[in-house]
């Protein structure tokens, strides 16, 4: 497990990387469709601003012993949360106008200061998250890295379809991937026997693993599954883009040994956000 300070520094590095990329965009560039459904490039940045604001508020409440939902919280299913987010952050982007990047810089500078005030005894305190419910302050840092890395790619790929994920963030996202699968799993009817999907990563063989799905539940394990129903081989970037729903199993970046219908079912069970 990486030191928490390394994770905080990574968040700050990602925000600076995004600023450097975005600062010279034209008005037309901000309006380009991103790789994130329903959002233009500017809308993605609005979402990242909102994410930093939510995290700081959740940390404030959590450090004061309140890890439950905020007043007025209305629970929604995953589809409802996504639809609400899509509308909310388009509106935020529009309200900020040409101050969008300035506010982004401000919020991530504030977030860095807040995270650097936490002491050793604070990182395991509970904080509220609308999808995860109660999660630790430490896990929330990982979630912020995840969102920043994937959405950085969402924006960059609008200009360069062959761009890669931030290299310094890939290791962190591989650490976070099991948590992400848990957040995106859509349980369905139980099936007679588990279906096993094996993932082999060319550049990180120590990360090879199996995902076993019973329809209503799933389990992740390591080791060699000789009886896997599906085998996927790829590099780390491709694995992460697949897991986060940015490409599907038909992508030529993936080497797939499986019935295409089985892979489509995996993408129903684990639907990227």
Fraction of residues in helices? 40-55%
In the CATH scheme, the class of the largest domain would be Mainly Alpha
**In percent, how much strand structure appears in the residues?**
5-15%
State the CATH architecture of the largest domain: Up-down Bundle
C-alpha geometry = globular
Mean of residue pLDDT values: 93
- Strand arrangement within the widest β-sheet reads 5-4-3-6-7
Number of helices: 9
How many structural units, i.e. domains?
A: 2
Write the element-wise H/E pattern from the N-terminal end onward.
Answer: HHHHHEEHHEEEEHEH
CATH topology of the largest domain: Four Helix Bundle (Hemerythrin (Met), subunit A)
Instruction: Give the termini distance in whole angstroms.
Output: 25 Å
Rounded Rg? 19 Å
**Quick one: how many beta strands?**
7
Major sheet size, sense and barrel closure: 5 strands, mixed
Q: Any low-confidence stretches, pLDDT <50, length ≥5?
A: none
Going by CATH, the homologous superfamily of the largest domain would be: dinb family like domain
Structural class by SSE content:
alpha+beta
Describe this structure in a few short sentences.
The chain contains 9 helices and 7 strands.
What do you see in this structure?
- The chain is of the alpha+beta class and 273 residues long.
- It folds into two domains: 4-179, Four Helix Bundle (Hemerythrin (Met), subunit A) (Up-down Bundle); 195-269, Nonspecific Lipid-transfer Protein, Chain A.
- The protein has helices at 4-22, 27-30, 41-63, 78-96, 100-115, 137-156, 167-184, 236-243, 260-269; strands spanning 126-129, 133-136, 195-201, 209-213, 218-221, 230-234, 255-257.
- Strand 4 and strand 5 form a beta hairpin.
